[in-house]
Amino acid sequence: MKHTTILISTLLLVTIVASSDPIESACKQFNRQISIYRPQGVVVNQRVRRNLVGLEMEVYINQEERSNPICDLCANATMSGRRRKLLQINKPHMLVLPGDNFQYTVTKRYRNGPPAQLSCKFRVSGDRMIHSHPAVRHCPENAPRSNVVREINYAAEKRLLEDTINELLTACEAAGTTKMLILLGNYQDIESEKALKRYVIGRLESLLPSVEWDGTVEKVYRSNGRFVFEVKTALMKLKILHLVRGAEAAASIVDYDKQARSTYDRDDYFDEDYDEHESTTGVVEKMLLRN
């Protein structure tokens, strides 16, 4: 009787492990097909094999505690014909930060048979992210100097100097640098985009009243209990960081580009519908996005 009990327990354990491992493996496989860009953007590539005809995806960022989550990305891609093609879902303006909890449900629809659905999640690693604007260095060493004598206009000189610095930041010194800053503390889950921007500007004005924030802040995002805001230029960002240095506001206004990065599991895995050893060039089907 004792041996029978041990045998039954062993069989149950093997069954549980066998049922969970394929799901974990499938999640790792599909994670490999998701590209997350800095400062923003998400692309999902799916190689079409067998009788796959469509791909649907819902993504939720940092919503594991919500009872009624709202998808940050709801999209699908479909194809026609029987030729092997690449299905792609592209959301260029989606903001994902290092440390974010990335949850998604993907549904694969086939020409024959029922659809297959998979729900996964992972913590975003900064090392996993891809810079969407690679460094472009074009700095002439011996730039000609102008010998034209002109009347000094300090306002015009200041604008010219700022434009020149912005060009240098963009072309030479700012590889992977964004125009984004993070506002910490007093997080509120505000749904309205206009109300969110007003709230962030109000807090910034109380922290650093010397800056004309209403004309400085371009965009505002929510992420992982923090507010991320984008200013007009990289030079303006440097000015703000210089102003808060050594002040109390430095604890609340921090550089987006210097935040800590988490660790991401980069184990090798392979998706049966995605062959990474083959060329990824192909016909990209029309993508339908639901906002």
UniProtKB/TrEMBL annotation:
Say yes or no: keyword Signal present.
yes
Region forming the signal peptide: 1-20
Record's keyword terms, sorted: Signal
Q: Please verify whether the record's keywords include Signal.
A: yes
The name this protein goes by in its record: CBM39 domain-containing protein
Organism, per UniProt?
A: Anopheles quadriannulatus (Mosquito)
